[in-house]
Every structure is written in structure tokens, then in C-alpha cells.
Specification:
By secondary structure, this protein is of the alpha/beta class. It is 36% helix and 23% strand. The chain has an 8-stranded antiparallel beta sheet with strand order 3-2-4-1-10-9-11-15, covered by helices on one side. Strands 5-6-7-8-12-13-14 form a 7-stranded antiparallel beta sheet. It has a 5-stranded parallel beta sheet with strand order 19-18-20-21-22, with helices on both faces. Helix 7 packs parallel to helix 14. Bound molecules: fructose -6-phosphate (F6R). The site of fructose -6-phosphate has 14 residues, from helix 10 and helix 17.
Amino acid sequence: MCGIVGYTGYREAYPILIKGLHRLEYRGYDSAGVALLDESDNSLSIYKAKGKVSGLESIADSRPHSGCIGIAHTRWATHGLPTENNAHPHQSENGRLTIVHNGIIENYAVLREQLKSKGYHFRSETDTEVLVQLIQYTVDTTGEDVATSVRLALGKVIGAYAIVVIDRDNPDTIIAARKSSPMVIGIGEGNCEFFIASDASPIAEYTTKMVYLSDGQIALCRRGEELQVLTLDNDLVKVKVRNVKLDLNMLDKGGYPHFMLKEIHEQPSCLRDCMRGRIVEDGKRVVLSAITEHREELLNARRIVVVSCGTSWHAGLIGKQLIEQYCRIPVEVAYASEFRYSDPVIDDKDIVVAISQSGETADTLAAIQLASERGALVYGVVNAVGSSIARNSDTGTYIHVGPEIGVASTKAFTGQVTVLAMMALAIGREKGTIGDEEYENLIAELLSIPEKMEKVLSQDGRIRQIAEKFRDKHNALYLGRGINYPVALEGALKLKEISYLHAEGYPAAEMKHGPIALVDEEMPVVFLATHYGLYEKVISNMQEVIARKGRILAIVTEGDETVRNMVEDVIEVPQVHSSLAPLLTVLPLQMLAYHVAVSKGLDVDQPRNLAKSVTVE
Ligand code: F6R
């Protein structure tokens, strides 16, 4: 979704802003823009471009772009088409104020009409322009300074926002504010310069000192002065500076053509990082501090409710099976977007587990806020350190797989499943619902996963060949049972997202209740047919597809000759404990989606219409 970068200090702002926008590209966007204020002559330069940041650069590079204060934005269209005109920054009519904005102003139409009736004119279709005009109107009618006017104007706004405003008449100050949309302020050298952004990735190379704004806060970033944070009611807030370090290598492609491919291949090392310090005593015990600290609540939990979206929801379905099996606690898995509006029956005997890679998904955040209000303990399983969901959870376990840049989630998914498996083991052990042998065996199996993943990843070339067969298809079915059913859903989602092929995931046995009508010689069917659980039954489902001339790709356990002799293509994964199968079976499906998209010449890392961080509901 939209991304923000801002800078005020003593350096040239332009290179910082452009580099920052590149760092934010992974969030998904359709236009970009930058505004620079040069205090030597008080001139303001604004450049905008539809499409990529590189397009913006080619315009701005050849035109004046000096100034030590500036703001920049990548826009993911919500109000109005993705045109240059609708791209941010937007200005007040008299050109004094310039704004960039993430989020949605829900009452923008009413405000726009009110402002129009007072003689204000609008140049774009955006809600953002309404906001900057409203602030200007407040300055004009109250005579207050801009910071106060921002505060007063935001009091009239319904919706979600992270905004950054610059004022031509005060060319050293940036005003930032947030509600339900993240905003972080980096404090630079000598505490005299400020880097402002919608997440830490564009500013992490300049400073580790970060201040995360909370909802309803406004920050005044004045070059050479201490950061000042106020509430919308004008109360001064004690600034809490966090030390946030990001591994900058993780923000580069590291020699791979795409972030997605890099992230697929780094899963073995990511899972080692995820388990480090948590599987201890020479692989004999799982220790998660959140579980130790909240032992009583977890042991006495009546129910666990998982709230999440998309890929994280699929991880939740796997977590349900693991937690129910090893902890004997009933688990429900809800789409966060449905949960938040369902008036859920939830109280202090429930644990709500929020799973989120970005930690900023608006629906998941709202779901945990509701759960907290109703007394549930909120346990976050989050990747982005310091993110809103992490900060709004009572406790939790970070996934620790490093920043995920490719829009299609890969390493975060396997990280989430690994954390959920560790949670099931740790809670099950405390409850006594898992036997010693099973417990130790599962830990050993978890520790063996990274090496086994490497074996699966070495089949990349073969998967690329198989991908050619999908290239010209329009549909695909993904079928699996038990623990592999959520993997079928995830495989289908990956294909949809980046190769724009329609794909459906189904429990394999459910196929004959409808989807089998779609099967013919044109329909690729991907079966998850690993060697345990309902294997024989999955084979029967395969026979049904073969009888209708469906083209099968099967993901099987190493050495499976039965399936090899039945179907067109097989990919083998090493033998593993059935509960952990998804950590291996999902890899060929991630690679398949990747290679289909590449062979179609599509933009793998930034697929159309998608955003990495879904900060609007
Ligand atoms: C799919 C994907 C999305 C996200 C979903 C939730 O590849 O990435 O479906 O999983 O938008 O995002 P997070 O996990 O950041 O809450």
C-alpha cells in the first residue's frame, strides 16, 4: 500500500527520499511523487509520475531538486484513478501546505462539499487533497499556526491516516500524524535531523533511534530541536525512543533476479534464525518466553481464536491442527475482516492469536483491538519488529525471518508455521498433552527441516520446466487433505497472485462434490500426496482426475513409485513428520508460481493491484 518518506535536516533531502521510495516499492503502488523545499530561496519543487519510482527519478533528476526538507510518497490508488494528477504530494490551493497521506478519509465527500461551498477548488479526485485544504481552511479561519491547525483539522476527520505536512512559511519543520496507519520517526545525527517513514525500511540505514507514533499523536520534527509529540487534545507525550536495527542485506536482492526468489531460497536459513534460542538444551526443549510468562492463561484457555488474513490465515489453519492435536485446546481460525464485524463471543477465557507478517494489516489490528476490549489475551505472531500489531499485542513471538519484500509471502509463511509448531510443543508440554517421545521426536524433526528444505529447493530447474506447462492455462486446481489442505489453499493463492491464473484450493475429497465438473485435459491439477495420513484416499482422488483426463502434478514423499507411475509430473520432498509436512510441501508450490509468472513476463515482486502491507480495510 502507500508509502511515505520525509526528511528534515542538514543533508540534501532528494537522494534520501528517492532511495527511501525504492525501499518502499515492495509495498505495492501505482504512482509516486516528491516535494522538496529549498530554504535558500523558499522554492518548492514537486514532481510526480504514474508508474514506477524510476519514472519519477527520470523526471526529477533533470530538474531542480535541491533542499534539505522534503516529503515523498508511493500511492496505491483508493480514491481516484492511478494518474499523475492524483499522485501525492498534494497542495493547499494557495500552495502554502504540501501533504502526503496513507489511509482513507471516510468523510472526505462531505468535507469536500463543505470546502467547495466556502470557495475552495480541487484539482484531484483524492481524499488527501481534501485533507490539506481542510488544514489550510483551519489556518485561514482560526489564525492558528499549522501544527495547531493540523490537530484541529484531524479532529474533524473520520478514517485512517498517516500524514506528513510541510509548510512553505516554516521551511525547517515537518509535521507528522497518525491514526490506524503506521508512522515512524528516525532521529538522526546529533538529534538534529529527522527521517520520517511509514515503516523502518527506508530510514534504517541512517539511524537506529526510532519513535513509533501511536494513534492520535502528532509529531513536530523541527531541524535542530528535540522531537515534540502531542496528542490531538494538545497534551505533551513523553517520547519513547526504541533501538531498531534492520539487517540491510535483507533489503537487497542479494544477486537474485527477484526478491521473491531470494526469499524462497533463504527459507532454510530463516527457519534456523526463527528457531535459534527457542529450541534449547541441545534440541531437547522448546522455550518461548511468551508462553513461560503467560503459562496460567494458556493452560486454562477455554479456546484459542486465530485472526489473520490471506497467507497468514492459511498458516493459522495449520496452527489449528497442531495446537488441537498437541494441546487439546479447541482452535477457531477467523478472517480478521469478518471477525471484527461479527460481534464475536469472546472474553477473558479466550486467547486471540494474531498472525501477521507486516504487523500492519488494518483488519487484523482492528480484530485484536476488539479482542482486547473484550478481555482476551492477545498473542501476536508477527514478523515486522515494532509494528502496530506487535505493539498492540499483550505478548507474542516474533517470526524473525527478516524483512519480506516480495509481495507474495513465502518465508513469512514457513516462519509462521514454525512458530505455531513451537507454540503447540511448548503449550502441549506444559499441559502434559504431548508424550515425551513425541515431543522430542517433533523437536528433532523441526530442527531437520532447514536441511530438507535445501533438498527441495535444489529441484528449482525441474520445477521451471513444469511451469512451462501452466503458462498458457487459465485455471488450476490444488488439492490436499488434512495438514496439506491449507497448503493447497496457499499454493493456489500464490499462483493467482503473481501469475494471474485462476486457481482454487480444495480438500481433495471435496472435489467430487462440484469442482470435478471442471476437470478435462486442459485442467492442471496439483495434488499434495505425501506419504502419510490419508495417502491412500488421496490416491483414489487422483484416479478420479486421471479418469477424466486431468493433467496431474503431484508433490510426493521421496521414493514414491506408485504415484510416479500414475501421473505426468512429480516433485519429491524428503520424508518428514506428518505434522510438519507443510514446511516442505509448500516450497514446490511457491517455486511453481514464481516460474509461471516469470515465464509469462510478469512483475513478480510487485504484482498488479496487490499491496504488501494492507493498511486499509
Ligand atoms: C499473500 C499475502 C497476503 C498476506 C495478507 C496478510 O502472499 O502476502 O495474503 O498474507 O495480506 O498480511 P499480513 O501477514 O502482513 O497481515
